[in-house]
């Protein structure tokens, strides 16, 4: 959920093993996993400022903070679409 919009929906195992939305990936990378050595998982930092929830843009709500944003993200806010069985994502770049 980002700014009141569901960005990804999947069974828990699928979501944790194969996140598709950049925001979901960033959230999951923030989970502390105790690993010793240099094989620690890389954390994804979310840049930028959160948009105002009062004045939401017509574009993708995450586009200003997304490293993968493209022109299509600025045209309209994507709806959830099923990319895998029971795995829905609101991202034009998700594969």
Write a brief structural summary.
This protein has helices spanning 12-17, 22-29; strands at 8-9, 81-84, 87-89. By secondary structure, the chain is largely without helices or strands.
Characterize the structure shown.
The protein is mostly loops and 95 residues long. The chain has one domain (8-89). Helices cover 15% and strands 9% of the residues. It has helices spanning 12-17, 22-29; strands at 8-9, 81-84, 87-89. Strands 1-3-2 form a three-stranded antiparallel sheet, with no helix packed on it. A hairpin with a 2-residue loop joins strand 2 (81-84) and strand 3. The longest helix has 8 residues, at 22-29. The radius of gyration is 14 Å and the shape is globular.
Keywords, separated by commas or semicolons:
about 100 residues; little secondary structure; three-stranded antiparallel beta sheet; 2 helices; 3 strands; about 15% helix
Topology:
Elements lengths: L7 E2 L2 H6 L4 H8 L51 E4 L2 E3 L6
Antiparallel strand pairs: 1-3, 2-3
Count all strands and give the number: 3
Radius of gyration: 14 Å
Largest sheet, if any? 3 strands, antiparallel
Give the H and E element order.
EHHEE
Number of helical stretches of at least 4 residues: 2
- Strand fraction equals 5-15%
- What is the global morphology? globular
- How far is the N terminus from the C terminus? 19 Å
- Average pLDDT, rounded to a whole number, is 88
Helix content: 10-25%
Low-confidence stretches: none
Structural class by helix and strand composition: little secondary structure
Which strand order spans the largest sheet, edge to edge or round the barrel? Answer: 1-3-2
Tally the structural domains: 1
